[in-house]
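hi! just following up on the protien thing from before. the input was this:
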Amino acid sequence: MREEILLNIDNPRQLEKLYRNNKATFKTAFDTLYPQLRENPLVEGWYQRLNYSPEGLFWGTAKERIIVVAASLLAALVAKLPALLSLDPESFYVRNIGFIVFPLLIAYFSWKNKIAWKTGALLAGFILLAIIFINALPQSKPGDTLNLACIHLPLWLWSLLGFSFGGGKLKTGVNWLGFLRYNGELAIMTALLLITGGLTTALTINLFRLIGWNIETVYFNYVVICGLAAVPIVGTFLTQTQPTLVNKVAPVIANLFSPMALVMLVVYLVATVFSGKDPYHDREFLLLFNVLLIGVMALIFFSVAETTPTSKSPTQILILFLLSAVTVLVNGIALSAVLFRIAEGGFTPNRAAVLGANVLMLAHLLYVGVRLLGALTRKTDLVLVGQSMAVFLPIYSVWSAVVTFLFPFLFGFK
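and the predicted 3d structure came back as:
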């Protein structure tokens, strides 16, 4: 590495390639060469870059910290509304779980990105109408359209969050790929916060138990519920103010779990053949099949979102391509099972919703798979893979809105 650095010391592009190919070895070799080359301004710049360490953690501005604390307290208050207003907890949380956090995160990014007040008012109006709509739906039996609306409403709110994350400007395009990357980093940060909170909870409850105080009920009813409501907000704050905490971990997790998911999925499909179960006649199995499909798709999207043109080796791209190909097979099986059940028993709200979702996911996976194949054969740039992944997200938003707001009317609130 020393000789390569010396040969390319005046070639910034080649130095950058050497650095990205093996950062640790490059830094070690460069530091040993620095004393004899320090008169070169380019060398000095590289030395400062490689050896820079921030003086301390940056925790955002005072105003931002106040906003995060206020939003966390407000989320906790919303989460405790059933107890404060004597509401039915099950009915409240099923219908309003998405409103505990999403409106506050939308407001946070709207403020942070300085979204125009007209756009902010429009987002607030959409959220208010959604609150009124979901709580006005009648509780019927079996209530399929209500259940579907409650499931798809958070997905629609999630798309509004992506819109505010991207700056609230459709003309210049929303940074959907950046939004997916934020979601992956938020998931990691949320997991860390939950682990920390779980350990703190166990320690606190057992310490009080030692002195004869049983605080489990009070602690869970107030501290745990309020803490869970605040976790996504605090996690978002940390991802925005401390990006280095997770932006190096996320690619490692993506690269580690992608091959594991590929092996697991292949083994699962083989085991399914010999298990005697099939999604054509087993409704619960079909549901689990679709949950598996969504989980693997999320992993593919997370892996691609953490990709840069120089960060993925051909082997990693091949694994993602094979994973997408196997997921297309799983999706095809699920889609054929849905069509079989529709042909056998006709349309129902659940079957229509699953059919639409499976068609969208199949088209999306095929599109991403074609782009991955192009990147694998070097016929297209890896950047196009990320673009192909992000282009479908507005379509998912429209579909979730259709299921949430139109299905109850189309199927007579059944």
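The two ends are 69 Å apart (CA to CA).
The chain has three domains: 2-51, 62-244, 248-410.
cheers
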